[in-house]
Design a protein that fits this description.
This protein is mainly β. The chain contains one helix and seven strands; from the N terminus they run βββββββα.
């Protein structure tokens, strides 16, 4: 599990959260199903099977099982790092802060800790 440094200058805290995330790479018009690693009000960390280039715009859907709904958001890839063959860690910067929309995920992450 990744640890977070006290020197991290993020405005919003990242919390570990492992759930499915479906995204559309709007540059290639290809769909992907991945797993999140962490989430904050400004971004999502996820694991992918292929590299996604920085600056790539994404449309993302996260399931909210408790409500039987899906949360939709958009963002762009801030960075991508190869962990091993066919496994990448990708950081996505969300286009806007949506504290109310992300609240179910933050509560779920806090409950898991």
């Amino acid at each position: 599990m990744e640890t977070y440094s006290s020197s991290d200058k993020r405005l919003f805290q990242r919390v570990p959260l492992r759930i499915s995330l479906r995204f559309l790479n709007t540059s290639t018009n290809k769909w992907n199903l991945v797993q999140t690693e962490d989430i904050s009000a400004r971004g999502i960390g996820m694991l992918t099977q292929r590299e996604v280039d920085p600056e790539t715009p994404l449309e993302m859907w996260l399931p909210i099982p408790e409500r039987g709904e899906t949360y939709y958001t958009r963002g762009k890839v801030a960075w991508s790092r190869r962990l091993e063959p066919d496994r990448y860690r990708v950081g996505v910067e969300l286009n806007r802060v949506d504290l109310m929309g992300l609240a179910p995920f933050m509560r779920k992450a806090e409950a898991a800790v």
